[in-house]
Amino acid sequence: MxxxxxxxxxLPTPNLGSWTESxxxxxxxxxxxxxxxxxxxxxxxxxxxxxxxxxIGAQNISSETEGNRTGEISAHIAKDSGASFVILGxxxxxxxxxENALLINRKIKLAIKNYLxxxxxFGEPQDIYKSGDTEDFICSQLKECFKDIQADNIVxxxxxxxxxxxxxxxxxxxxxxxxxxxxDYCINHLKFKPESILYGGSVNDENCSNLxxxxxxxxxxxxxxxxxxxxxxKIVNNSI
Length: 240
Ligand code: PGA
Fold this sequence. Notes:
alpha/beta; TIM Barrel
């Protein structure tokens, strides 16, 4: 997957029907298999009906397989609802639910076991960015989250926390360097090659064209700019 919409706890504007219409009216890509949409859980099956050619995924899963976990969705249930991938380790989940690397590691293993492609997010807070320690910070997260895991369908999303929803991005060469380090670290230390390495954080239909020209940026995880069908279509058109 190369371009993924993360709708978070929002429905697309103005509604799913008109989002779909404005997306298909504007998108020029014929093969949409490299596109994913992660709606709220309750809208997964509806999205599968609307988007037959686009992969639909979940925004999280439980770290447990089943049982007394009120309010949670297991990997198996997410798969059963039609999801084909799952976003894991998003900084909002890490922060709001105290999700640590151990839990993320369990979730990645459960996703793989249940045939959900993991899209795993990593990103540094602003103080780490400012002190120039981003690479070390991300590599130690990679080491912990991917302990004992090797698979050929893992997508990694580099999402600096301070860039999410703020309109502020790192410089392209900074993103490129981190993507290159992530790739090297996965291949040389973790012994797997990520399927793709996406950038996420304030991507829109204007900045995506420059970003995608970098050889280490394979695609995007898009939040706010994916809530309108035409703007997400433009990101797809400019990036694939
Ligand atoms: P944003 O969100 O595009 O609104 O910055 C990205 C994300 O959180 O995945």
